[in-house]
Amino acid sequence: MKDLIDLVLVFSRLSFVAFGGGIGILPEMERAVVGGHGWVTHQQFIDAFALSQVTPGPGMLMVVMIGYRAAGLPGALVAGVSMFAPTGALTWLVADRWSQLGDRPVMTLIRGTLSPVALGLLSAGCYTLFRLGVGSVTAAILATAAFAAVAGLKMSPALAVVAGAIVGMAFLR
Q1: Can you state the percent helix, strand and coil of the chain, rounding each to 5?
Q2: Torsion of CA 17, 22, 26, 30, to 10 degrees
Q3: Mean pLDDT, range 158-172, rounded to an integer
Q4: Helix crossing, 62-101 with 42-54: angle to 10°?
Q5: 80/116 Cα distance (integer angstroms)
Q6: How far, rounded to the nearest angstrom, does the alpha carbon of residue 138 sit from its chain's CA centroid?
């Protein structure tokens, strides 16, 4: 029962700071679920993130796997609901009133303030993924090449994943 309560506390808190998408909360999530509670290992955390990125649905579905590792099927359900329900309800509330508040100066200030916060959190998440997932020079070269292909050559991210998997299997075994 304690793990279920801890899952609610961890993921409902994280859901409210996921500005700019789930990648922004990865450093804090990794600290809480790997270092703080020990629900998953570093490698399981990376594997869960990678799997959540290639499956349909929200990218933070990785919390379901973490919840399952922590407390079985009830943990998976609690983690998923705790991650998505609080911010889903808040989004519904804000969206319902956004048009009424959209022209006020405070709304312009909020939009301008949250953009750099989201960018900072996104950068921290990318750094965490790189630090946890790239363990060798060959892997670093592969990650850099994939980034360059997607960002510079406008390659489809899905194609970059497939190409990276093929190259990784050939050279990183």
Answers
A1: 85, 0, 15
A2: 90
A3: 82
A4: 60
A5: 27
A6: 25
